[in-house]
Design brief:
Layout (H helix, E strand, L loop, with lengths): L6 H11 L12 H12 L18 H6 L16 H4 L21 H12 L18 H12 L18 H6 L16 H4 L22 H12 L26 H18 L6 E4 L6 E7 L2 E5 L16 E5 L2 E4 L5 H8 L20 H4 L26 H15 L8 H9 L51 E7 L6 H4 L3 E2 L2 E3 L12 E4 L15 E3 L24 E2 L3 E3 L5 H8 L7
Parallel strand pairs: 4-8, 6-11
Antiparallel strand pairs: 1-2, 2-5, 3-4, 5-12, 6-9, 7-8, 9-10
């Protein structure tokens, strides 16, 4: 036991392991201890409205008067007070109170009632008992704690040094222990922090983690503590996924059809040439530049003769690529952060909690919930690549940008990405096979400043005008990763032996999805044009939520993306698939 743990709490903790309760360790107080117990366990049957056995326990006078079997309370003598003697009967005794089907009182509660009667049953004048909900730990409290608290307060994580896995730990741990004080809700931060306003920085669980709790759950926590924080012996808690009901979202096929219509109208007005252009994000004025990538054919994957080739880089397949624009640089924090952080209250799926279908289409697109940590991890934001987003988040950014600009943006397919990276070459890198030249074009483990990412566009561009296509951060593609290479892709859209490069391997499971290009944390061979890897659940190890966030890969500090814009506008159905390709749940 902690040296700072009060004797009162030591006594309560011991009461669950020992057959008796050391009543002399704490003096029972009527308002603090007895009133909550009686109101929860007795008054529902013994009150003015429902006086079973003709017994009413709302006042001391009525309790002493008793019912059809005589008095219920003899001040000073527990052995003659049915209010106590019926509590200590065997569980299978027909006369035990409360009845077994309702659940017996805990030893700690019974001991307090015994001590109170021995004191003469002091009952403040004028106090009338009222029925209160009797809180059952397993039924009411355990689900609240397991679904909202245990993901952060468990033996492995223990935020604030507070552990809630067991009763003993709940009493003793925490930077400001005790966080749980039985019978005293106002001194129990386990309750008080849950009762704070949603804008309070100390709210638990935090707003970004699904807080605040519903008022009903907060009230149950309060009543549970006031009734003695009864925690059945041996019950251990573990984090559970929070049960949720489907919430209304405007981000549906109907919204995509509205965005599609806007894109078609915009394109008809512009009639732009297929050339390099710089656009601005309407909401922020932040510029971004798109480079034209002319169509053509190429062999996707690497030949068996390529040095350090991975088995998943084949078999090579011939691909036809339609023209598209590609982001000159990786999407930066300047572009991404206004999408990631907004003042709008959101559901976990990113839908605004309140909306009208007549709102602007970009405001109806799902956007990330507020991150629970600073997402650049101190590496810088002004001009640096945005990182640690899920494929789903990157796709929703594309939808958000499309809804503002009237241009269709999405992530590249794996074939489109490799075609653009190769820039018409068949070698390991777009300059050849000599990896010693990589430092002129890329930030890798060998040259990354302070072993972290660098500002976008600092190295030489590729022959097709793309910066950081190798290194800096790896980049999301739309495809589900297949360790067997391109066999799955070959069965999707082959025509006359040639693959349609605008098609991708659709998602059938949460992991893995393809990332390309290598990063500041990778060796040179991982920056080859053909090198590929898949996402991994370990990229979310630090995420305390259950289920894990659909927006953040907090352990993938080298993960980013760049966007493309096909020259030909696809159907609304194809847009919907591109923007909702990633699984929104682990």
């Amino acid at each position: 036991m902690s040296r700072t743990t009060p004797a009162f709490l030591l006594t309560l903790a011991a009461s669950f392991a020992a057959p008796s309760f050391a009543a002399d360790a704490v003096k029972a107080d009527f308002n603090k201890h007895i009133k909550p117990i009686l109101e929860a366990a007795c008054i529902h049957c013994h009150c003015t409205k429902s006086s079973k056995g003709d017994l009413n326990l709302e006042t001391k006078e009525l309790a002493i008067k008793g019912g059809e079997d005589g008095t219920a309370l003899v001040p000073g003598d527990p052995s003659k007070s049915p209010l106590y003697t019926l509590l200590v009967l065997a569980e299978d005794d027909d006369d035990v109170m409360p009845p077994s089907k309702e659940g017996l009182l805990a030893k700690s509660q019974i001991a307090l009632i015994e001590d109170w009667i021995k004191q003469g049953a002091p009952w403040p004048e004028g106090v009338v008992l009222e029925q209160k909900t009797r809180v059952d730990f397993v039924k009411h409290i355990q689900p609240i704690l397991e679904q909202n608290c245990l993901s952060c307060h468990n033996p492995e994580k223990a935020k604030g040094d507070f552990i809630l896995a067991s009763y003993k730990e709940a009493l003793e741990t925490g930077e400001n222990a005790p966080c749980l004080v039985p019978f005293d809700a106002e001194k129990s931060s386990l309750y008080t922090l849950c009762a704070l306003d949603k804008d309070d920085d100390d709210l638990m669980p935090p707003t970004k983690s699904g807080g605040p709790l519903p008022k009903g759950e907060v009230n149950l926590l309060k009543l549970w503590v006031e009734q003695g924080a009864i925690w059945p012996e041996g019950v251990k808690l573990s984090a559970k996924e929070k049960k949720s009901t489907a919430t209304p979202t405007p981000d549906t096929m109907d919204l995509v059809k509205r965005i599609h219509s806007f894109i078609v109208q915009t394109t008809e007005k512009e009639k732009a040439d297929f050339g390099k252009y710089t656009g601005k994000i309407p909401k922020t004025g932040i510029p971004y530049t798109m480079v034209p990538i002319k169509g053509g054919e190429f062999m996707l994957g690497s030949p068996a003769s390529e040095a350090k080739r991975g088995e998943d880089e084949g078999p090579q397949v011939k691909v036809k690529i339609s023209p598209f624009w590609m982001g000159e640089k990786e999407v930066s924090w300047d572009e991404y952060q206004p999408f990631m952080i907004t003042a709008v209250d959101r559901q976990k799926d990113g839908a605004p909690k309140t909306f009208k279908v007549t709102d602007k289409i970009d405001d109806l697109v799902s956007q990330p919930t507020t991150p629970y940590t600073e997402m650049s991890f101190g590496m810088g934001t002004d001009g640096f690549p945005a990182i640690s987003m899920t494929q789903h988040a990157a796709s929703k950014y594309c939808q958000w940008l499309s809804a503002q600009t009237g241009h269709f943006y999405r992530l590249p397919t794996e074939a489109e990405w490799e075609y653009a990276a190769r820039a018409g070459t068949t070698t390991a890198y777009f300059w050849g096979d000599d990896e010693s030249k990589l430092g002129d074009y890329a930030w890798t483990f060998d040259n990354a400043p302070n072993y972290q990412y660098a500002k976008v566009g600092q190295k030489k561009p590729s022959p097709w005008g793309l910066y950081d296509i190798y290194g800096n951060v790896v980049e999301w593609c739309l495809d589900q990763y297949d360790e067997n290479g391109y066999k799955a892709l070959s069965g999707i859209a082959m025509k006359d032996g040639i693959l349609d490069g605008s098609k991708w391997v659709p998602t059938t499971k949460p992991y893995p999805h393809v990332v390309r290009g290598g990063s500041f944390d990778d060796d040179p061979d991982m920056c080859r044009s053909a090198f590929r890897r898949g996402s991994d659940p370990e990229w979310k190890n630090q995420d305390p939520q259950l289920p894990k966030s659909i927006w953040y890969h907090t352990d993938a500090k080298w993960l980013g993306f760049r966007i493309i814009r096909p020259q030909v506008i696809p159907s609304a159905e194809e847009m919907f698939k591109a923007w909702n390709n990633g699984f929104a749940k682990d």
